[in-house]
Structure to design on (370 residues):
């Protein structure tokens, strides 16, 4: 199994918390950007083959596609048609994809765009809600309110989308536990197939940081435990630290990441992992548009202890944990014994996992393997 990721870095406005590679007010560059993605894809082809047919890159064909951002739904109807046309013709080829996810924000969706996505093979939609409280959405710099989100969700259902993820955030500035509980209840009432939950991270350089907002780990932990309880009672299984799904509807694309599978990223700042080598494309949009082949950053060959350590950390993100093979035991048996002694992980047979009630302390576990 391998995944294809397409990064669309354009947004209508920059959210106050956003530290991702995204650019507001540059919609006039989108057409040129889509051409650049197509050119980048051609650097992975040979002899007229599609990207997915080239076996030398370690892909072996694509199983999943994820279009993220940024705000991919900012693209016009014509641009969406162009994107999926060349993805099929030049990149995916005859691969039968198990899952195609498209990220969208409600303020840039329309019924016509939803129809294009459905007809283009998108079978999983990820909608950013963050909070059901309009005052918190304004504090985050979100360009739409909760009523607009409700319209987008219902429009997606009417368009035929039967697998929808909702993104929620917690520990927001000015957010009480009751506020978060209300957002949870509003989300559960909509009955999405998947919920992703993220505690606020305040990064230097963001508007929230400049406003003086800071992270609150204690309230984040309280809200996290509340979410685990409420979502579990509503039929959602936690299968990864931040992700909850109805049975059988886990994100296959993201599971491939956590299983240390191969993936190719196309676009500005997109990350790839092929044949044990990982890298990301340049984060500079102008450089991405002008450079051929694309400039890579942070290229690193993972092998030996470093590769095993990363496999452990990724595997422990999943609630089912990871099987202990000989490489793990040889390299990290002492670390594992220490974590067992601290009561942070548990062992069953040859498998280890972070204890259910300790998942919010996962960073303390991961530090043992860095």
């Amino acid at each position: 199994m391998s995944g294809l990721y397409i990064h669309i870095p354009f947004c209508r406005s920059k959210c106050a918390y956003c530290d991702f590679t995204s650019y507001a007010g540059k919609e006039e560059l989108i057409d040129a950007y889509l051409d650049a993605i197509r050119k980048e894809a051609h650097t992975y082809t040979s002899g007229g083959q599609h990207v997915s047919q080239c076996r030398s890159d370690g892909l072996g064909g694509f199983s999943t596609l994820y279009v993220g951002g940024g705000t991919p739904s900012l693209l016009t109807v014509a641009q969406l048609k162009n994107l999926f046309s060349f993805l099929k013709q030049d990149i995916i080829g005859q691969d039968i994809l198990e899952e195609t996810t498209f990220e969208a924000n409600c303020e840039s969706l329309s019924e016509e765009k939803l129809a294009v996505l459905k007809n283009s093979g998108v079978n999983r939609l990820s909608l950013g809600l963050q909070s059901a409280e309009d005052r918190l959405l304004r504090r985050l710099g979100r360009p739409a309110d909760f009523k607009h989100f409700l319209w987008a969700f219902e429009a997606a259902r009417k368009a035929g989308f039967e697998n929808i993820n909702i993104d929620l955030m917690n520990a927001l500035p000015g957010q009480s536990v009751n506020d978060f509980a209300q957002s949870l209840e509003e989300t559960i009432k909509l009955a999405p197939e998947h919920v992703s939950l993220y505690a606020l991270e305040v990064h230097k350089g963001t508007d929230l940081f400049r406003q003086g907002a800071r992270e609150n780990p204690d309230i984040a932990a309280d809200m996290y435990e509340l979410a685990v309880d409420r979502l579990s009672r509503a039929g959602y299984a936690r299968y990864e630290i931040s992700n909850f799904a109805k049975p059988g509807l886990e994100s296959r694309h993201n599971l491939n990441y956590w299983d240390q599978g191969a993936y190719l990223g196309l676009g500005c700042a997109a990350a790839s992992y092929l044949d044990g080598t990982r890298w990301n494309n340049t984060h500079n949009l102008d450089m991405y548009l002008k450079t051929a082949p694309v400039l890579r950053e942070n290229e690193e060959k993972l092998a030996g202890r470093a590769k095993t350590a990363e496999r452990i950390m990724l595997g422990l993100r999943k609630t089912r944990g990871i099987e202990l093979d000989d490489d793990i035991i040889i390299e990290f048996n002492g670390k594992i014994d220490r974590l067992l002694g601290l009561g942070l992980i548990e062992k069953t047979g040859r498998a280890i996992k972070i204890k259910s009630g300790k998942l919010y302390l996962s960073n303390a576990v991961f530090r043992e393997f860095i």
Notes: The chain has two domains: 2-256, 303-370. The chain has 13 helices and 17 strands.
